[in-house]
Amino acid sequence: MCSIVTSSMNRSFDEKISREHFVIRVEEVNPDGIWGVHPYNPDMQSFFAMPHIISIHQEIELDPNNPEHAQMIKDFEERTGEKANPDIMGQPKETPPEKSEGVEPAFVDIQNLEQMAAQIKDAFNSLRQ
User: 29-57, pLDDT tens digit by residue?
Assistant: First the structure.
């Protein structure tokens, strides 16, 4: 789950709308940009072009059933005096990649990156024709 910060556009969004449009579950990264699915609507997919991406921020989905996350929620509520209300509850959680012994999981599958970029480029070129 990531927040994508892009170059300025002539529209302003409140916090909820910003999350709906710029927070995604990353599906694919290639030299042209990032494809992602929205946690509020898993049927909606977005593409962020690399030249317009300013920064990417990893987000954490808190699970109130996880004791560590429950403590973070409690600390937030005590610090702000506000009740933390989940807003994407019920959506499927990301499953962490399995670890091979002695090998750390990679954020991007480097071996398939060139193949993914070629597929996206071919798809993009076929749309332009």
Answer: 988 999 999 887 788 888 999 999 998 88
One-letter amino acid at 36 equals G
**48: β partners:** 34
What whole-number distance in Å separates Cα of residue 119 and Cα of residue 77? 46
Asked if residue 37 and residue 73 are part of one domain, the reply reads no
Q: Find, among 30, 8, 31, 32, the residue nearest to 22 by Cα.
A: 8
Q: Do residues 67 and 45 share a domain? A: no
**Residue ranges in the chain whose pLDDT is less than 50:** 89-97, 99-100, 103-107
Pair (5, 52) in one structural domain:
yes
Domain residues for 51?
A: 1-59
Question: Which amino acid, one-letter code, is at 24?
Answer: I
pTM given for the model? 0.54
